[in-house]
Amino acid sequence: MESETLRAIREHATADYPREACGLIVVVKGRERYVPCRNVAVGSEHFVLPAADYAAAEDMGEVIAVVHSHPDFPAEASQADLVACEASGLPWHILSWPADDLRTIEPSGYEAPLVGRRFAHGVLDCYSLVRDWYRRERGIDLKDFSRRDDWWKSGEDLYMQHYGEAGFAVVSQDLPEQVGDVILMQLRSEVVNHAGIYIGNGQMLHHVHGRLSTRDVYGGYWQEITRCVLRYRG
């Protein structure tokens, strides 16, 4: 990384502190350039770089790396960083600020564990867990859907709108029977906003915001908030 690029990254981290700063390194006419982008994430736990900002950077030249800061936190990559780095296919530079420690990660085949992963909306959330389980256990790549932070709070009903596009059909209102059945739940919300995968023996795999992904006995509270059960039809 060129010294001018690093200087620009530091300036951006300072300007956006205490929120995470994010941007892209682009080669423009043979020269490296740092392009600051917006962080449109709700809260300060992670960053969301808008697709429009990425597209604008691509119009300038070739995107060669993703950059973001870790305010008041070590530059060590989180699980979400490692997963998103794999998805991007690019190196990621992480700057701890104001500690000014820069570390780089690159795609290496990392996969987050199904149990014990940390929540990061849009990267490691309940639907990401459903997609990962289907890819690893069934060899099926489910369609992903764009989802902004706290979409359910504005009344968006994404699960109910899109389950058909992902290849699922409703088979029950509240009782999963086959391994792989997806349980849709309404968790402290006006719309369905949570999903789990039935893994047999009365258990489901799911990931609640603010907690690690886990296996839970399906019943009691979880059955009370269930709105329907889906089965993959392809």
UniProtKB/TrEMBL annotation:
This is NlpC/P60 domain-containing protein. Keywords: Hydrolase, Metal-binding, Metalloprotease, Protease, Thiol protease, Zinc. It holds the Pfam family NLPC_P60. InterPro entries: JAB_dom_prok, JAMM/MPN+_dom, NLP_P60_dom, Papain-like_cys_pep_sf, VirAsm_ModProt. PROSITE patterns: NLPC_P60. Belongs to the peptidase C40 family. Residues 95-233 form the NlpC/P60 domain. SUPFAM superfamilies: Cysteine proteinases, JAB1/MPN domain.
